[in-house]
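job 3f2a | input accepted
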Amino acid sequence: MTKWRFSGSSPTPQPNLPGLFSPPKRRRLATPREQALDLARARLSIVVLLFAVAWVMVGGRLTYLTLSGEPETPVARAPSGSGATSRADITDRNGTVLATSLPTISLCADSRAIINPDEAAKQLLSVLPDLNPQKLNEDLRNGKHCSILRRHLSPRQYYEVNKLGIAGIEFRPDERRIYPVGNLTSHVVGYSDVDDNGLAGIEKSMDTRLTENPEPLALALDLRVQSILRQEIATAMNDFHAEAAAGLVMDISTGEILSMVSLPDFDPGHPGNATDDQRFNRDTLGVYEMGSTFKIFNTALALDSGTVHITDTFDTTHPIEIGHHAIKDFEKEGRNLNVAEIFTHSSNIGSAHMAQRFGGVKQRAFFARLGLAEKTSLELPEIGAPLIPSARDWGETTTLTAAFGHGIAVNAVQLVRAVATIVNDGHPVHPTMLKRNEAPEQDVDTVVSPHTSAMVRALMRLVVTRGTAKKADVEGYMVGGKTGTADKLNANHKYEGNGRRSSFIGLFPINAPKYLVFAMLDDPKGNAKTYGFATAGWVVAPSVNNVVSQIGPLLGMAPLSKDMNEATERQVLKPLGAEIVDGIPVEEGSNYASVESDSVQ
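job 3f2a | predicted structure (601 res):
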């Protein structure tokens, strides 16, 4: 063996390369642990070598493709932004998602790169049998760079198509709008088309906001309240075989609409499967005669104008003749009634007599100040205009019948807004579908005085405790309200003999109104539980009772104790005077709900 020689006094150390520069050292027998480590090192070396080879091959292939311009094998490309989508989420006031967009993959064809269109079509149909064969063959031959064959492939479909390896078939990033709570908020949230353009509801009215601002859009809706209201009016609709139903819950202090339900509803994820009737929003687009709920406005105007005092009495024993028709009460009281009794017993005759005192000019102007004479402003595109005579056509007949909600049609939001304004010490309330972080400043001008507002609140409490809406009372929550049962117009614009819309608007707590609940049934039918009656006090008031008893605690409102309830009751009724209150007896076991009817015969 050749000897290495080194100059100097101390030799340079030899490299430690066993087997090359020095004979291999003898090793003692390895332990099991050392044998395992040796095996692991060997395997790791093989893996590293394989990765190195693969890296070189991929790098070489990329270099070749860059220089030669050879078409790249089509692969799925995820949307840009690591899964970000182009349309903002819609949430309820608590952050629960009501609408969101998810990244998806769509399939397209570059017909210029497809070698055998017939074979490609055959293979694609084997994976996507619902494709239209004729259109597919056209798309594979039309010479376009990208013809969309299928939107929103499922992961399984993407895998199967990609496995076919057809040249010219590409995958493009896409997104799909989904609605996690389905029908529950369909009329409010609305829906969009396949290209994410809003077509209805908030999706349409806030389309620009949702497209340009990625932050979630928070609605005023409380999904918990929405679920409760929908359940209750759906149950009533089913129990009384009604054609349709609608309901609202509003925060009076902010104008925020916490719940809006219209039945029947639909799946916003598949709006094309819904009928026009299902897509119709009965809270905003539908305008209806609201019946005796209008007596709230009639009484407020009578008292606020000074033309009528709470102690005034009117003859309700004889019908009022108007042309060939007569204004009647379903069941006569057989005596003159004061203002409180007219309101509590829901007398059409008494209300009409009160309207004669202040006249049609003041009446229409008052309706206009309450927002009942023009299209309401709300963040939804589906808004129906009220059907109300012009000032020029406002004659005596209109004055008398409008006193009890006959001959004027408004939507539910207009009614709710007007009632909220009356009970809010006369300060106008402006409804909104969007969440407000704080209550807006109250308008300086009031529609009625605080004293008139207090008297109307007292009258609405009497309706629940002694009048037509006893079934709406909830212990500890001081509910006040007003029933309304209006005859329906048929297709020939004539009033149906048995068709009606029954509604109830309730407030709680009536001493300091915070929440308003409205519910309506379209053409309900009486049953054994209601003794055949289908008026509002029988078929709608109980639903509002159920809603209030559930959402009260949910919204952080504890019921009053019995002692506190009695003290508050006395305070609420005080503006009417003891003589008026004591003159309306509390009749156990009776319910005036059966005698209400708002019609001209």
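job 3f2a | DSSP finds 19 helices and 18 strands in the chain.
job 3f2a | closed
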